[in-house]
Amino acid sequence: MALEEAFQIIEKRLFDSIDVAMDIDDDAIMDRIQEEICDYARENPLDVEERIKLQKELFYSLRKYDVLSELLEDEDITEIMINGFNHIFIEKRGKVSETKWHFSSKEKLDDVIQQIVGANNQVINETTPIVDTRLADGSRVNIVLPPIAIDGSAMSIRRFSKEPITLSKLIELHSINEEIKEFLGKLITAKYNIFISGGTGSGKTTFLNALTEYVPEDERVITIEDAAELQVIGINNLVRLEARRENIEGDLEVTIRDLVRTSLRMRPNRIIVGECRGAEAIEVLQACNTGHDGSLSTGHANSSIDMISRLETMVLQGMELPVMAIRKQIASAIDIFIHLGRLPNGERKLLEISEVIGVEGEDIKLNKLYEFDYESKGSDSRWLKRNNLQNTEKLLRVQE
Question: What's the CA gap between 44 and 36, in Å, rounded?
Answer without folding.
Answer: 12
